[in-house]
Each structure stands twice: as structure tokens, then as C-alpha cells.
Amino acid sequence: MSNRWLKVLIVIVIFLPLTSNVQGQDAVFSQFFNSTLYLNPALAGIEPDVTVSFGHRSQWQNLLFPYTTSQFSAIVPYYKNKHQKPLGHVGALGVSVYSDVAGEDNNFKTTGGNITGAYNLPLDKQYVHLISFGLQIGAINKRIDPDNLQWGEQYDAFIGFDASISPSEVSNLRGRTFIDINAGAFYWWTPLPRENALINSANSGLSISHLNNPNESLLDTESQQLPLLWKYHGGIVFNLSHKATASINYLIAYQDETTQNNIGSYLSYKLTTFHSGKVKYGIARLGGWYRVNDSFILLTEFETALFKVAFSYDWNTSSLRYNDRGIGTYEINLAYRFASHTPPKSRY
Fold first, then answer.
1. Which residues are CB-neighbours of 302 under 8 A, at least 6 positions away?
2. What pLDDT, in 10s, does the model give residues 136-183?
3. Contact 49, 342 (CB under 8 A)
4. 3-class DSSP state of 6
């Protein structure tokens, strides 16, 4: 197969799912490429250096049911021979912990942690075509603080709400901890650098969460299975010049007959600096996204060989915008890479 037809095939495979008719739902992380272990456990395999990251999302603070989500993760790559970087990259191990707090009085809390293992399968000696497989196993705890909650049976027909009435359902509430299993696969095409090349890289990934369908019910008397969460994501990075790239990316998430569709683009530009007589550079990045029937997202990011800092903001476009008083959702992400020799790359 010629290189030209190979490129055409890659474009078709990556963007074919976008032709389906889908509806939107609320997001989890707008910066999903910066929350790699949450997006797809296979993405641990493409990180070339030891990396730690922290993400925080604050949403709907003007409403009665705001929530915040935070995640910390660490990825440790494994090489057959550390002197063969980037070749010989076998895979990686990762750990991640997260917390989600929701409700008017922060009554509903979810915390979890997991361990991720990824294995890389190169399809050629130059690692131009690479498939990574990931498996993730962890535990999730969900709990409700009923102290400040009001129940329907606490309302008296004559005096209204009566706090002295003890709701019967409270005795059935309990925190629940359960095992959670996720898996994923990721394909990455990174052609060897050459002059006037149009495509810098292309990728496509699929992940499935909650493979064991755990029981997440907080009532002793009921059972509620956590449905499968499917995520399909990918994109293409184009070379605009030797310093600039532009990309098209997407994420489709499907769970319990609800679909979320995200599509957007990044513009990345290398900023060259001199330090100790050596040329070094960072990447300034600006991105725009549309979460279908939900919100517009603006992202700005700066990345060097050692660290990354990113900030994004969501403007709601659904009917909820009439209640949020113009205050949207912000998200920050900080990452540190334990490597001083590896230049940053435009992966998305």
C-alpha cells in the first residue's frame, strides 16, 4: 500500500464515527487529553517520561447543585533499554486518585483510586505505527451525608417542613465501596519527520469503563448496576510550518443510552529561547471546542520539556445558562515531567 493511500485510510478510520447522529450530555473533563488515565488507560503507554499531573474542575457554583472534581495521576514508563529512547518503549504503569463532590451542601461525595498497566505493540521497527493496550483496576467509594437533606415525608400538610420527623429512608442509606475495572486501546501514527509533510501525526482510541457492572446503589434494599461507559476519541495533527501545527480532535462518549459528542481544534506554536548557549523552546497552545447541545470551551496551554500548565473555560449553551448568571465552568491542569532532554511535542 502506498503512503498516499495509507494516509487516506487513516483519515477514514479516525473520522468515520463522526458521521453518526448523536446527542450531547454533561461532560466530565473538558481537558480530556490532559486527564489521560481517566480518558483511556491505554494512553499511559505513550508517555515517554515519568510524569505527574493534577487536574481540578469547578462547575455551576451559582446553582444549588454545584460540583467539583479533582484528579491526581502519575505515570512511569518502562523501557527494555533506557538508552534506546524512544525506541524500546514496552509500556507503563500508572496510578490515579480522584474526588468528586456534588450537592448544595456537598452532600454527595465520590472518591476513587486505580492502578493502570499499559502494553505497547509497535507495528514496525521505527515505532511509526503503535498500538497500546491498557487495563485499569481500582476501587470507588460513594456516600451521602443526610444531615442537611430534606425528604418528602418530612413535610406536614399544616405546618410545612418539620425537621423533627425522621425520614424512614435514612436508615437504609449507606456508603458503598466497589471494585471498578476499565480497559482501552489506542492507535498512534507518528511518521518520520520530513520536509513539507502535511500530517504530523494521527491517533484513534477506544475505552470501556465499568466492565464488571458494579452495584453502586446507596440503599441497602436496592441494587443499581453501574452501566458501561464507552469512549471513542482521536484526531489528526497537521503541520502548518516548522513551528506551528493545527489539529482536529473529537470525543464521543456513550453510557446508558445517552451520548455526548465533543469536537474541536488546537493551534500550537513553538516559542524558541536560548539558555546556556543551547536552543530550547516551549509550546503555546490555544484551543476551541464545542460540546454538542451543551457548551463552548476555550482552552489555553503552555508546555515545556519539564512542565505543562493549562486553563479552560466552558460557556453553557443549554437551557441551564438562564440559571448560572453567566458564570460557567473552569478547569485547570498542571503537569510535571521528570526529563530535561525531551522536547515537547504537539500530540493533539
1. 282, 283, 284, 285, 308, 309, 310
2. 999 999 988 777 666 666 677 777 776 666 666 666 777 899 999 999
3. yes
4. helix
Residue 88's pLDDT band (boundaries 50, 70, 90)?
confident
Rounded CA separation 32/55 (Å): 10
**Sequence-distant (≥ 6) Cβ neighbours of residue 317 within 8 angstroms:** 293, 294, 295, 296
- What DSSP character marks residue 299? E
The C-alpha cell 465552568 sits at 329
**What is the Cα–Cα distance from 98 to 102, expressed in whole angstroms?**
14
CA distances 264 to 30, 135, 298, Å, are 11, 28, 10
- Residue 338 · residue 50 · CB < 8 Å: yes
What DSSP designation does 256 have?
T
Total-model pTM: 0.83
Per residue in 16-61, pLDDT (tens digit) is: 444 333 333 334 788 988 999 999 999 999 998 999 999 999 886 6
* Sign, CA torsion 252/253/258/264: negative
Q: How far apart are the first and last CA of the chain?
A: 26
CA distances from 68 to 29, 102, 104 (A): 11, 7, 12
Q: What is the 3-state secondary structure (H, E, C) of 107-134?
A: CEEEEEEEEEEEEEEECCCCCCEEEEEE
